[in-house]
Amino acid sequence: MKIKVYPTSALQSKAAAQVIADQIRTKPDTVVCLATGDSPFGTYRELVRMVRDSHIDCSRLRVFGLDEWVGIPPDNTGSCHYYLHENFIRPLAIGNDRVYLFDGLSKDLSGECSRMTEAIRHAGGIDIMIVGIGMNGHIGFNEPGVDVNLWAHAIELDEITKTVGQKYFQSATPLSKGITQGFQQVFAARTLMMLAHGKKKASIIRQTAEAPVGIAIPSTLLRQHKNSLIMLDEEAASELAPSLRN
Ligand code: GLP
Description:
By secondary structure, the chain is α/β, with parallel strands linked by helices. Helices cover 31% and strands 17% of the residues. The protein contains seven helices and ten strands. It has helices at residues 9-26, 41-54, 80-89, 109-122, 159-164, 183-188, 202-210, and strands spanning 2-6, 31-34, 62-65, 67-69, 99-100, 128-131, 153-156, 177-180, 191-196, 228-233. The strands form two sheets. The chain has a seven-stranded parallel beta sheet with strand order 1-10-9-6-2-3-5, with helices on both faces. Strands 4-8-7 form a three-stranded antiparallel beta sheet, with helices on one face. Strand 9, helix 7 (202-210) and strand 10 (228-233) form a beta-alpha-beta unit. The chain is globular, with a radius of gyration of 17 Å. The N and C termini lie close together (12 Å). The model has no long low-confidence stretch (mean pLDDT 97). The chain binds 2-amino-2-deoxy-6-O-phosphono-alpha-D-glucopyranose. 2-amino-2-deoxy-6-O-phosphono-alpha-D-glucopyranose (GLP) binds at residues 35-39, 66-67, 131-134, 140-141, 161, 165.
């Protein structure tokens, strides 16, 4: 696990967007798997700017969603579906045939998960997976206690996630389950980029780097990934031991 720290979240976002842009330039048919939420917001905005300014060809890019709230319709502004269309898919003009997102309204969640896992296999696996980190260390919706042997799956949400998740919605929204890529997809991703910024993430980032590796804090498992890159701003890195920063 490589940790990189930038003075501000704006610089962190720029650096992360540069990594993604370089990946797309090197392999135009790159398979990306994308988180939503506050953590990657600035990175996607920077990437859109870079793609426009440098005329990077995204016509062969393939996009998979990392997770979704079960029961939330795609036109709800708090859904991962809405976010990805708004901040990535539409600005980069990615064709619908190159986009694969979880259907949070599916009546057959296990079928939906099998279809997702198969679609990723068919695409040749994920080249770069971009994730944030929950306040409880979740990755996607892989909550504390998750079975790391799972591929895509539906899961009961942790109480912390249900509470924190309200920030994405315009009014109070009952949340109970999530649907997510599993740790098998996380481990199989050729590059894993985790983004975090702000003081409120400092404690969970320290635990990610220092706590015993295990499912109690799922993000610690990223230390076992063969190619994981954690990109932080100074505030999120503020509790890290100096020896862990570079
Ligand atoms: C959410 C999502 C994750 C996201 C994480 C952090 O609930 N399920 O995919 O990465 O929690 O969110 P944020 O970046 O808004 O802090």
